[in-house]
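Incident log, structure service

09:12 report received: a user says their structure output differs between two submissions of the same chain.
09:20 pulled the input from the user's history:
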Amino acid sequence: MDEVPGGWSNYLSGVQLLLIRHAEPVRVEAESGVADPSLTEAGVRQASQLVEWLKSERLDHIAVSPLRRARETAAPLADAFGLEPEVITGLAEFDAEAPSYIPMEELRATRDPRLSALTEGRWEELGSLVEPETFRRRAVDTVNRLAAAHPGEQVAVVCHGAVINVYLGDVIGTPRLMWFEPRYTSVSRVLVSRGGVRTVGSVNEAAHLR
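09:34 re-ran on a clean worker, output below:
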């Protein structure tokens, strides 16, 4: 984790990022084309619960992945706060161009070998067209630029599990791509000082799902 010179006063004019994983999407195995699943009924409820969790907080900006599951998660949050989400291509998941989407829960329950491919970075086996280190650099640079553009603000970043993994991993200094499993609509907070110093405030907040 980055050092915090000057203590917490260094964050007074910085930014707080709320990294939010999308809600539960439907399972898709397309015969052709790209899988871009929408939310399940449970996912729609999770997105609503997220709004209840955050409605007492200040929110100045919403950034969102262009994928449908992220945009549908961000929509009720944007309505509640009267904000127009900024769609950012660099927040898309590594499998954005893949022909299928199988939820991690199903991969685990069925002991699908694609789960180990996911956690070990063999993403080409999942239909990914992006090399893992390229994805890591793109995601980290995208979120860092977003933080730099919103000093003094609280920004919701509605994106994906791997995006959250690699960004938090970059903050704490782990080389692993996938080192924890963000829950659907979970919130992980990163504080970024006015000098660009980053520290993790929380990981995987999910009390709203109880």
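09:41 both user submissions now match this output. Likely a transient worker issue. Closing.
09:42 reviewer note: DSSP finds six helices and eight strands in the chain. Helices lie at 41-54, 68-81, 104-109, 114-119, 132-148, 161-172.
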